Amino acid sequence: MPIQVRMRKLRGPNMKKSMPFEPFRTHTQAVNLQDLEARFESGADVTIEALVAHGLGTRKNVPVKVLAKGEISKPLTVHAHGFSASAKAAIEAAGGTCVMVGSEAPSTPAP
């Protein structure tokens, strides 16, 4: 019998010894605007540590990305690893600022 017939097959991402599923994919944890609206007061400085303290962004070493699900009416200064374009526009329309973690200068809206 040929060797490829005698060897067992390791298929699928859930097999114990198979290759990991999408090994080069960057995973992020999502934080929605409705969660920021419900958990933070107007004018608050929303950092990664503040998100963890309020029960958002709980996984260590996984970047946080702010998504635009829901509405926001409070001016907040949000520090995160990433922002969707519509979330960034909504935060800035409410009078807040978006700060990318790693670059401490507030991001400016695109012309």
Describe this protein's structure.
With 111 residues, this protein is of the alpha/beta class. The chain has a domain at 26-100: Ribosomal Protein L15, Chain: K, domain 2. The chain has four helices and six strands; from the N terminus they run αβαβαβββαβ. It has helices spanning 3-6, 33-39, 48-53, 85-93, and strands at 29-32, 45-46, 64-67, 77-80, 82-83, 97-100. A three-stranded parallel beta sheet has the order 1-3-5. A three-stranded parallel beta sheet has the order 2-4-6. The radius of gyration is 20 Å and the shape is elongated. The model has no long low-confidence stretch (mean pLDDT 84). One of its GO terms (biological process) is translation. Pfam families: Ribosomal_L27A. Residues 31-99 form the Large ribosomal subunit protein uL15/eL18 domain.
Any chance you could write out the topology, listing elements then pairs?
Layout: H1 3-6, E1 29-32, H2 33-39, E2 45-46, H3 48-53, E3 64-67, E4 77-80, E5 82-83, H4 85-93, E6 97-100
Parallel strand pairs: 1-3, 2-4, 3-5, 4-6
Pfam families: Ribosomal_L27A
GO molecular function: structural constituent of ribosome
GO biological process, one term: translation
